Amino acid sequence: MASENPPTADEASSRADLFARLDALDIAHRTVDHPAFFTVEDGRAFKASMPGGHSKNLFLKDKKGVLTLAVAHADTRVDLVGLGKAIGAKGRLSFGKPELMTRTLGVIPGAVTPFALINRSAAALSRLVVDAALMAADPVWFHPLENTASTAISPDDLIRFLESCGFAPEIMDLKAPLGP
């Protein structure tokens, strides 16, 4: 379970820590700085010139407090009811409170990213689900632990990074997680 206190600046990884990890894994990455975006819609016009798959990241919990990070393509309308059933959630999935998200992922609302799994506190996540539609794009873009930039990597390198953080992502169609 996540610690009771939010990570301090010393505990949460920085953008530089992330880039050092990507470099150590020999993962090619490119970063574009931009104004702070808090929603997919905020950044849509700016990111139109950045080819590839852009993401939206949902920090979810079920009735028993089991935490899931769903990493979806920005244009995917995520079926939360179907996702909950597909992953065996107890009760309905809901969005985790911002304080819990920051304690768990070490990032602020608007900066949620699978790159946050570099933080030790992310071990409180029980499940990581990645949208098949996002994995079909190349490259894939995520905030590098802050919402003032976006970093591109290949889908295969995303999987390698996630596995290096101790997570085995489940790839599924998040618009229809129970199938057509």
Number of strands: 8
Distance, first to last CA: 35 Å
- Helicity level, as a percent range? 25-40%
The number of helical segments is 6
Give the C-alpha Rg.
15 Å
Class from secondary-structure proportions: alpha/beta
Overall shape: globular
In the CATH hierarchy, what is the architecture at level 2?
Alpha-Beta Complex
Beta content: 15-25%
Counted up, domains total: 1
CATH class annotation: Alpha Beta
Low-pLDDT runs of 5+ residues are 1-10
Summarize the biggest pleated sheet.
Answer: 8 strands, mixed
Q: Tell me the CATH superfamily.
A: YbaK/aminoacyl-tRNA synthetase-associated domain
Question: What's a quick, concise take on this entry?
Answer:
The protein is an alpha/beta fold and 180 residues long. It has helices at residues 15-24, 40-47, 80-87, 98-105, 132-135, 155-164, and strands at residues 30-33, 53-61, 67-73, 94-95, 127-131, 140-142, 149-153, 170-172.
